[in-house]
Specification:
Elements lengths: L4 H4 L4 E12 L4 E5 L3 E7 L2 E13 L2 E11 L2 E5 L2 E5 L2 E14 L3 E15 L6 E3 L2 E14 L4 E14 L2 E2 L9 E15 L3
Antiparallel strand pairs: 1-4, 1-14, 2-3, 3-6, 4-5, 5-8, 6-7, 8-9, 9-11, 10-13, 11-12, 12-14
Length: 193
């Protein structure tokens, strides 16, 4: 794979702090429980902060470590009542990144393995199932700035399963497929290493 002269001059390591929005697409719990009836539990949209470290190994191919933390309450609904409690979601992942359109305005795609966890008051009675291993896929846009800086915007989808066992319960909840979206923007800093 040939590396263009412009790509050969790019820094090998980049650090990006970012802000974003956490957008869960699926219910955490959705099942019929006697005598209550239909019970649903969902994570709510929230504000997210994160950071990623990218190593550009082979021209347009890089490897990235990422961590994101989102403040996200949960809502539990049954019959005619609902209750909202404080919570948070975090994820750490490693992924491969491919610059499919390198240059001053670039487009990239990525994918890898993620570990997603939850915490806060919403989960204080949960004994098992606060975290799960899954996958992450994403795409983004990068705009080069003067010097070793760039602005980067990404949309990432975390795909995994949720299943919880509450304190005092013998049976866990039904497994629910999860698709959590993180929309983010940040400042890329080339480390020049």
């Amino acid at each position: 794979m040939a590396v263009s002269p412009a790509m050969a001059q790019l820094p090998k390591f980049e650090l990006e702090p970012y802000v974003g929005a956490y957008l869960p697409l699926k219910d955490l719990i959705s099942e019929d429980i006697e005598p209550v009836g239909r019970v649903t539990g969902s994570q709510k949209e929230g504000f997210a902060l994160g950071g990623r470290l990218t190593f550009w190994a082979l021209g347009p191919i890089g490897f990235e470590g990422n961590f994101v933390y989102a403040w996200s309450d949960t809502e539990l609904s049954a019959a005619d009542t609902s209750e909202t409690t404080s919570g948070h979601v975090w994820a750490g992942d490693v992924r491969a990144v491919w610059r499919i359109l390198p240059g001053p305005i670039g487009i990239h795609v990525d994918g890898g393995v993620a570990y997603v966890g939850r915490g806060g008051d919403s989960y204080e009675d949960v004994t098992e199932g606060k975290s799960d291993v899954g996958g992450v896929i994403g795409a983004g846009l990068r705009i080069k700035l003067p010097g070793l800086f760039a602005i980067r915007a990404d949309a990432d989808a975390y795909l995994y399963e949720a299943q919880f066992t509450a304190e005092g319960e013998a049976e866990p909840s039904e497994k629910q497929f999860q698709a959590d979206i993180i929309i983010s923007a940040g400042l890329v800093i080339g480390l020049g290493l």
